[in-house]
UniProtKB/TrEMBL annotation, chain A:
GO MF annotation, one: ATP hydrolysis activity
Keyword Acyltransferase part of the UniProt annotation: no
InterPro entries in the cross-refs: AAA+_ATPase (IPR003593), ABC_SmlMolc_Importer (IPR050093), ABC_transporter-like_ATP-bd (IPR003439), ABC_transporter-like_CS (IPR017871), Mo/tungstate-bd_C_term_dom (IPR008995), NA-bd_OB-fold (IPR012340), P-loop_NTPase (IPR027417), Transp-assoc_OB_typ2 (IPR013611)
Family note: Belongs to the ABC transporter superfamily.
Record's protein name: ABC transporter ATP-binding protein
Organism of this sequence: Marivibrio halodurans
From TrEMBL, chain B:
Pfam families: BPD_transp_1 (PF00528)
UniProt keyword terms in alphabetical order: Cell membrane, Membrane, Transmembrane, Transmembrane helix, Transport
Family per record: Belongs to the binding-protein-dependent transport system permease family. CysTW subfamily.
GO cellular component, one term: plasma membrane
GO biological process, one term: transmembrane transport
Ranges where the ABC transmembrane type-1 domain occurs: 71-277
Main location per the UniProt record: membrane
Protein name: ABC transporter permease
Residues spanning the membrane: 20-41, 73-97, 103-121, 126-145, 157-182, 213-234, 254-277
PROSITE patterns named among the record's database cross-references: ABC_TM1
Source species: Marivibrio halodurans
Length: 373, 291
């Protein structure tokens, strides 16, 4: 319980079943006070169900949920003091912006003057102070989303729950709102749980990311950890573009491992300091290498020359570019190497490589992640 | 789409609307004009109508307290029926809209079921329920609560019961449509902000269902105010409604000019009501429940 005091929200062995179907398998999770936590995963992974259980919109089959150290399993939603922002904004269409934002204050013994002041502040915070007398239908989607946020934070909730709040906005607006949302969250220091299927939102905004798949938590970590050190093939594939290779451990110790692949030779691979992930000699594993970590060099420039400049932890193999996907600053290359289809994302120096070109591929040991089979 | 001939453009909507306009003209406007013309004719003792412009019928209809009283009674019956339909109909409408029941469509079908039986038969069925040898009286006597059958039929309340029975599905359907269209997230949002289930209902659900309630009320009122079968079957001698007067004048007395004037009075009253409703709510709401 000592741990629960620093956690705004704690999930203890929480399970959600619908009949025979388990939507969320036993989950333990602590959300630190004031932090921004993202539940990330494809649709149907249980992230929204988890959010709804915290909110009290969905009942819990097993386990306990604690908010500020208090068990809330049987606490009805209107007593939980949570701010929720829904994907479709859910503003009351028959009420003005002022009435919408003030709605939660009605139930909180706030005087009329105080309510007006707080609504004004909230609208100021979301940068829409002029809209108080308008109806939601007179606002754009992005404005409605800001009002929904103002309505959720004006009650000073213990936790702010965001259910895919950006996915109904168009791409440019979404990126602006992303920055905006993070700014507001940071300035208020409010514990936030954010649900999304969009990895770039998750990476940009979160203090911690919970990657979920099929009702299981796959990995919990900072954006960097989750991106650079995926703990499972699912995470590696879901975030960014990864190359997954089958391999076998040749030797392993605390600092790293030597792995052998079919067709691409042997690699040095980094292994987490984490003692729990030990790999035995001869064990079959998978390697994950981010597309942007494969450095391509045209072989025509002299392979020996390239290799001679390499640091000792860089492994090299030869390949051939099959497809070039030009994106301006960067290019995504599809290549064939040792019987494998790989992809690499490299910044472009003057000209992109051309299709059919022979290349030398370099990869550093710390960019090779060993995953259990 | 873009027409080269600028003359063609303003005419096109009229051309596209012409079938509908023709139907409305032939089936509604022209007959009403006939009735209006008729209302200025005079009926003679010999039975022949005198064509012309006589205000006698209008003087009688607008001047005689008898007609005014019955008009008032008609409004009262229609109003009471509407209020009861709204109160009684909201609950099943809410249930059908909110239920997780998989076969919701069947619930709506059950609502339509009464329409498969003649309205007159349905009205008369109340005689078997409330009549002196009806279910209720037989039951009360069997239980020993009364020795003599109680006279329950043939008063204004049985007229209202009959009308509620007839009009309830219209109300339920209209309210259902507006309740069904409410985004559930709005209710969740209200709850998360601190309102109890009842407060969420009064703050969000009820106000958002008012358009449906208004549409259902308008339909119930108009249909109730224009009825003559229910008071004929279930009402007593003093329970005649305005449409009964029209029926009597035209069918019994064969006084078409007077009947025409009377029906125009009812038409004007209900027309004003519809116009007021349309001003505040818009007719589109009623169309929704039939779409």
């Amino acid at each position: 319980m000592t741990e629960a005091t620093t956690h705004a929200v704690t999930l203890q062995k929480v399970v959600k079943r619908y009949g025979d179907f388990t939507a969320v398998h036993q989950t333990d999770l602590g959300i630190e006070d004031g932090s921004f936590l993202t539940l990330l995963g494809p649709s149907g992974c249980g992230k929204t169900t988890t959010l709804r259980m915290i909110a009290g919109l969905t009942s819990i089959t097993e386990g306990d949920i604690l908010i500020k150290g208090t068990r809330v399993n049987d606490l009805p939603i209107h007593k939980r003091n949570l701010g929720i922002v829904f994907q479709n904004y859910a503003l009351f269409p028959h009420k003005t912006v002022q009435e919408n934002v003030a709605f939660g204050l009605k139930y909180r013994k706030v005087s009329a003057d105080e309510a007006r002041r707080r609504v004004g502040e909230a609208l100021e915070l979301v940068q829409l102070p002029q809209t108080a007398d308008r109806f939601p239908s007179q606002l754009s989607g992005g404005q409605q989303q800001r009002i929904a946020l103002a309505r959720a934070i004006v009650i000073q909730p213990d936790v702010l729950l965001l259910d895919e709040p950006l996915s109904a906005l168009d791409a440019n607006l979404r990126e602006d709102m992303r920055v905006e949302l993070k700014r507001i969250q940071h300035s208020l220091g409010i514990t936030t749980v954010f649900v999304t299927h969009d990895q770039s939102e998750a990476l940009a905004m979160s203090d911690r990311i919970v990657v979920m798949s099929a009702g299981h938590v796959e990995q919990v970590g900072s954006p960097e950890e989750v991106y650079n050190r995926p703990s499972s093939e699912f995470v590696a594939r879901f975030l960014g573009a990864s190359n997954i290779l089958e391999a076998r451990i040749v030797s392993a110790d605390r600092t790293g491992a030597k792995v052998e692949t079919q067709g691409l030779g042997t690699f040095q691979a980094a292994i987490d300091q984490d003692e729990t992930r030990r790999f035995a000699e001869g064990q079959k594993v998978k390697l994950s290498i981010r597309a942007e970590k494969l450095a391509l060099t045209a072989t025509g420039k002299g392979a020996a020359e390239v290799a001679s400049g390499d640091a000792p932890d860089i492994a090299r193999f030869d390949g051939r570019v099959t497809t070039v996907d030009y994106q301006g600053q960067v290019a995504r290359y599809f290549l064939e190497a040792g019987g494998h289809q790989l992809q690499a994302i490299n910044t472009i120096d003057e000209h992109p490589l051309s299709e059919g070109e022979a290349v030398s591929v370099g990869v550093r040991a710390r960019d090779v992640v060993v995953l259990p089979q | 789409m873009a027409s080269l001939d600028p003359q063609e453009k303003p005419l096109r909507p009229w051309a596209l609307l012409s079938p509908a306009l023709t139907a409305i003209l032939l089936l509604l406007v022209i007959p009403v004009c006939f009735i209006a013309v008729y209302s200025f004719w005079l009926r003679t003792a010999t039975g022949a109508d005198i064509a012309g412009f006589h205000l006698d019928n209008w003087a009688e209809v607008l001047g005689d307290a008898f007609y005014r009283d019955i008009l008032g009674f008609t409004i009262w019956i229609a109003f009471a029926t509407t209020v009861i339909c709204a109160l009684v109909g909201y609950i099943p409408a809410y249930f059908i809209a909110m239920t997780q029941f998989r076969h919701k469509a069947y619930l709506l079908l059950l609502l339509m079921l009464p329409f498969w039986i003649s309205y007159i038969i349905r009205t008369m069925s109340w005689i078997n329920i409330l009549g002196t040898s009806g279910v209720v009286n037989v039951g009360l006597q069997w239980l020993g609560l009364t020795d003599e059958p109680i006279q329950m039929l043939y008063n204004q309340w049985t007229v209202i019961i009959g009308l509620v029975h007839f009009l309830l599905p219209f109300m339920i359907l209209n309210v259902y449509v507006s309740l069904y269209a409410i985004d559930r997230n709005l209710i969740d949002a209200a709850r998360s902000l601190g309102s109890t289930p009842w407060q969420a209902f009064t703050e969000v659900t009820l106000p958002l269902s008012l358009p449906g309630l208004a549409a259902g009320s308008l339909l119930c009122f108009v249909l109730a105010a224009g009825t003559y079968i229910t008071p004929l079957v279930l009402g007593g001698p003093t329970d005649a409604m305005f449409a009964n007067l029209v029926f009597d004048a035209i069918i019994t007395q064969l006084n078409w000019p007077l009947g025409s004037a009377l029906s125009l009075v009812l038409l004007a009253l209900l027309g004003v009501l519809v116009a007021v409703y349309n001003r505040f709510a818009g007719m589109g709401q009623i169309a929704k429940s039939f779409g």
